Amino acid sequence: MTITCVIMAGGKGERFWPKSRTNLPKQFLNISGNKSMIQQSIERLELLIDISKIFIVTNELYAELLKAQIPHLPHENIIIEPVGRNTAPCIGLASILIEERYPDSTMIVMPSDHIIQNDTGFIEILKTAVKVANDNGNIVTLGIEPAYPETGYGYIESTGVNEPVNDVNVYRVNKFVEKPDIEKAQAYLESGNYYWNSGVFIWQTAVIRKYIKELMPEMHDILQTMKYAFGKSDQNEIIATEFIKMPDQSIDYGIMEKAKDIFVIPCLFGWDDVGSWTALERIDELDENGNVIKGNILNLDTKRCIIESNGKLIATLGIEDLIIVDTEDVTLICTKEKAQEVKLLLKELRMQKLEQYL
């Protein structure tokens, strides 16, 4: 059984604006450490499999960025989405291409822009997940043990029945749960059998193809049309034409909320999805006043702020709980409680036809 991996790297990281931009989104930035998030993802996976079995799904805009940042990735392993259509079509397209090259394979699917601090622990969990996936055609997902009542993540509820494999706790999934309000998030935390949805999935390629056929028949038919075009002179044109017909649907909604035989492995390996600027408080060192400070900063009586300078001096006095990010052409100032709503500014920029700042 060949192990392959699909990295989803087509997102724009809009909540990390103005540093994450259309032409250089979050996954290509050095958020933590001296390498980009996607470079770190590749290095981590190469502890488990060869680069030839790693595939990246992205859009045409980022193909050259990928080639520059990961020059040893085979160019044919860069899968181009003609348009953005959410995670189910992204995974569906990757599955038929991998099925063609590695018919008897297991797929690991993961985002490109998450922080994982314990690489070794992550790889050991993946080895167990692959074993569980290969037993009776199971679907496996990695659940992050919640540290606080987070309202920005989806959750996975387990049955609470432990079926250990390789001395690792493995639970059957009861259901996937949408992002909760704070009261529900607190209840999930206290229950002990809810986990943050990491967006990492492991399954046999044949199994996910079977579930797509059963639960997303419209998408299955489109994928079959694409498959019939493999090897033909107009293969790329047919894939582009058919992909536009795909439903704009997540893999969670399309498959995971309806499939059977799903298992979750609870994990603690220093995970963070770096979903907004406030994530820096979890992954970077804080000063004595709880600030994250990067660059040329002078701060007095400044508490619990996130401040990043692009070179010019930023001086602060008597402020609390603010995000200040300075780039060449944009300076963002917002409260931390509005960090998840930064995309509203991008919507306004589009309305005012100020696309040069996107």
Provide an overview of this structure:
With 358 residues, the protein is α/β, with parallel strands linked by helices. The chain folds into two domains: 2-272, Alpha-Beta Complex (Spore Coat Polysaccharide Biosynthesis Protein SpsA, Chain A); 277-357, no CATH class. Helices cover 30% and strands 25% of the residues. The strands form four sheets. It has a five-stranded mixed β-barrel with strand order 6-9-7-8-10. It has a four-stranded mixed beta sheet with strand order 12-14-16-17, with no helix packed on it. Strands 5-11 form a two-stranded antiparallel sheet. Helix 6 (205-215) crosses helix 7. The chain is globular and about 60 Å long. The N and C termini lie far apart (43 Å).
Any descriptors?
358 residues; alpha/beta; Spore Coat Polysaccharide Biosynthesis Protein SpsA, Chain A; 2 domains; 5-stranded mixed β-barrel; 4-stranded mixed sheet; 11 helices; GMPP_N; NTP_transferase_dom
CATH class of the largest domain, named Alpha Beta
Radius of gyration: 21 Å
Number of domains as seen in the coordinates = 2
- The ordered H/E elements are EHEHEHEEHEEEHEHHHHEEHEEEEEEH
Task: Flag low-confidence runs.
Answer: none
CATH 4th-level superfamily of the largest domain: Spore Coat Polysaccharide Biosynthesis Protein SpsA, Chain A
CATH architecture type of the largest domain:
Alpha-Beta Complex
Average pLDDT for all residues: 93
Q: Please provide the count of β strands.
A: 17
Q: Which strand order does the major sheet show?
A: 6-9-7-8-10
Largest sheet: 5 strands, mixed, barrel
Total number of helices: 11
Structural class: alpha/beta
Strand content: 25-35%
Catalytic activity: alpha-D-mannose 1-phosphate + GTP + H(+) = GDP-alpha-D-mannose + diphosphate
Enzyme class: transferase
Family: Belongs to the mannose-6-phosphate isomerase type 2 family.
Domain MannoseP isomerase/GMP-like beta-helix: 295-349
